[in-house]
Amino acid sequence: MKKLLNAAHLYMIVGVVGGLYYRELTKAEHFTGQTQLGVVHTHALALGMLFFLVVLALEKLFSLTASALFGWFFWIYNAGLVITVGMMTLHGTLTVLGHDSGAAISGIAGLGHILLTAGLILLFITIGKRLQAQPQASTAGAATVAHATLQDR
């Protein structure tokens, strides 16, 4: 669980720094056009910080880390997010500085998106497996509560 909180915290820092970088670079270069730098902070905060806070809550409820797939999800998703945000930052910086970004940047960004998608698929599989493992315990607990309630009447 600490790993999830640390990841959320790290992406919060990346998001804030990304927003600051966008503002300061565009101001220093007197740039007023569209650039991907404008959404780097949003991506880091939403796909990083908020996402991992939600996964932290799901971990608390369903013990996601008990699944062997959880580690795969965590590292693949993080790799995808780092690549995606990194390429957005590079592409946006090149745009502000007046340079073209090549096909390699788009290709690497695409790889980041593929890894994000694979990570999300692994997360949903993990959640599904943990939900299947949970009902027996929760059904037994509900039956016990129902039985105790009937006895109290």
TrEMBL record:
Stretches that traverse the bilayer: 7-23, 43-62, 69-90, 102-125
Keywords, comma-separated and alphabetical: Membrane, Transmembrane, Transmembrane helix
Signal peptide: none
Alphabetized InterPro entries for the sequence: DUF2871 (IPR021299)
Tagged with keyword Transmembrane helix: yes
Superkingdom assignment: Bacteria
Descriptive protein name: DUF2871 domain-containing protein
